[in-house]
Amino acid sequence: MRITSSERVEKRRTEISFAASGNSVTFICLSKMKTYNIVVLAGDGIGPEVMREAVKVLRAVEKKFSLTLNLTEAPVGWAGIDAAGKALPDDTLALCKKSDSILFGSVGLPDRDPTIPKEERPERAALLRIRKEFGLFANLRPVQLPKVMAYACPLRPERQGDGLDILVVRELTGGMYFGQPKKTEEVSPGVQRAIDTMVYTTPEIERIAHVAFKAAQLRRKKVTSIDKANVLENGVLWREVVTAVSKEYPDVTVEHMFVDNGAMQLMLKPTQFDVMLCENMFGDILSDEAAALAGSLGMLPSASLGATTGGQTFGFYEPAGGTAPDIAGKNLANPIAQILSCALMMRYSFGLNDAADAIEKAVGKAIADGNRTGDIYNPADSNAKKVGTSEMGDAVAAAI
Ligand code: NAD
Question: Do 257 and 164 share a domain, yes or no?
């Protein structure tokens, strides 16, 4: 059901869902929908450990907000190979197709069975396959650094303001990574030429721009669009289309920034950014640069959004980090990235902004109370106490 912008502001934030469909993004009323079907794919390494804590937190959210969360676990990654001979077993994929969204841990263990070919290994056969299967074109990477964790940030405290809160919105299915032709050819004896092609169409730019502006409406209402319009034809088109889309969001400020300056400004004055809108390759690079500001991969969630069907945005939610084999099975991993992925799911797939806020506030409280897993522990902080994965999960769940 489409609603007008004046109706939109009347709706309670918890009753609207962020939904992307084709070239447009609309807010959809989901107030009657109280049951959510979520596939839980913990995967390998620290995946099952951090997922256990995320599920604890989801159960606390379910209780507090009177929701029904149908959580169905299924094997993926090496766990999928062990259980059913494939990194993405057919039954797991079928479950995903029936679900409202996917909560993913991480997959891949570099030292396991080198005889298995690359295309059958979990990173490609599970992760890339899911991204393709569900047309996940929008990648959202929030980077938050609470003030009490200023020590974890490589920037001097005076550059961090009252803490950092940036959302990188990256286009995920177009641009240089997928454009054709893409090949390496011999042009003369002993001389090879590699070709990658950067291609974007107007609809591709429009749909990701809508995602960024909608996300900004739920935040501080500013979009910084990143391009290279001074050199690239793609950049010129990107800027034109983003400018046109911005007219539909008069409540959101838009600014345009060249990517080289964007990389520099992230280091000089990161507090100026709310939402950074990037094409695929620029987003890949800048989201990692922004992530470094938060101090640990263990703090960073991500969302990948696909199209909308039946009034709901299909989403894939996962921590930014991998399976961390060096600390797996030791109760050392930080579960916060996985827990914050649940907050993104509440906000972007289900429109449950109160539940999302509650999870984020609970994480903030657990941190403010001094709970620190090893990756974010600072021995110089007298308020900090070192905790394990499960204690951190308990602290967040208790704060919901
Ligand atoms: P990694 O992200 O697993 O680990 C890098 C470093 O960050 C390690 O020191 C690790 O201990 C630390 N780290 C990561 N998450 C943490 C957490 N939650 N708490 C505390 N510390 C954490 O990257 P890697 O070692 O290069 O890759 C290991 C495996 O994970 C590889 O097989 C890789 O392909 C896979 N991987 C999977 C995904 C995914 O499933 N989306 C993403 C990245 C890497």
Answer: yes
